[in-house]
Design goal:
It comes from Alteraurantiacibacter aquimixticola. This protein has 235 residues and is α/β, with parallel strands linked by helices. The protein has helices at residues 82-93, 112-121, 148-160, 173-180, 206-220; strands at residues 3-5, 10-13, 25-35, 43-58, 61-77, 102-107, 126-132, 137-140, 143-147, 164-166, 183-187, 193-197.
Length: 235
């Protein structure tokens, strides 16, 4: 099948000019999660490719095919100033094929507010996630408060159901897996279940949090799609 991917990530299945064809639009976009360094931690970047393309459902009708999400890029570094981090993030976002098709999610907690402000001043649209206790989330402007437990549970479910997978040969894949293994479920004195990170000198969780932020955004902050179609099996 031949697709036309628009600059904004809209995906169109080429079908000629026949007006009788029922058409749908899919998408091919990216989510870039950024966890910012605190003290001796690393700044981490992780990219998820999120795609749902149109397919033929008959000779004159299209429908959306299965949705796929794939971790395609990961990077981490330390000892870099926040202005340089912003410049690097912008460079990643403007590379092909990410240019114009990427939604940015940054850690907006603590000093992360500084980076969010720098991005805002540079005209870079993004969501700044502030991790909180609990399992709720709430958006206010460019800031979104999200329970850390909710974020990590979302990531766990996506992996368990194979809705999120790693690209073949992904650099730092083993590092991400090792970081995810340091998180564990605990019960508080009030009887609430929370996910906390166990102590490990080798892994700080930077890549895992960057990935969890991107995965959460892909699940809860994705743009809405409005369309008209026909229910299968109904007359």
């Amino acid at each position: 099948m031949s697709y036309l991917i628009q600059p904004d990530g809209t995906a169109i299945l080429k079908a000629g000019a026949d007006p009788a064809i029922e058409r749908v639009q899919g998408y091919s976009r990216y989510w870039l999660g950024v966890d910012l360094a605190q003290a001796q931690d690393n700044t981490a970047l992780v990219v998820i490719h999120d795609e749902q393309l149109p397919v033929w459902a008959g000779p004159n009708r299209q429908m959306l095919g299965p949705r796929t999400r794939t971790v395609i890029y990961a990077d981490k570094f330390k000892g870099v100033s926040y202005p340089d981090v912003v410049s690097h993030v912008i460079r990643v976002m403007t590379r092909e094929p990410l240019r114009g098709r990427t939604r940015l999610v940054v850690d907006g907690s603590g000093l992360g507010r500084v980076v969010s402000d720098l991005l805002h001043d540079a005209g870079v649209q993004h969501t700044a996630i502030q991790m909180t206790a609990g399992q709720n989330w709430k958006r206010s402007g460019r800031y979104t408060n999200v329970g850390k437990t909710l974020m990590l549970e979302c990531l766990s479910v996506l992996f368990a159901t194979h809705e999120l997978q790693f690209a073949q040969g992904l650099a730092l894949r083993e590092d991400i897996l090792a970081e995810l293994e340091t998180f564990q479920l605990e019960t508080t004195a009030a009887g609430n279940q929370v996910i906390v990170q166990g102590k490990s000198g080798a892994h700080h969780g930077d890549l895992a949090i960057a990935l969890a932020g991107a995965a959460f955004a892909s699940e809860y902050l994705k743009p809405g799609v409005v369309g008209v179609g026909q229910l299968e099996g109904w007359i």
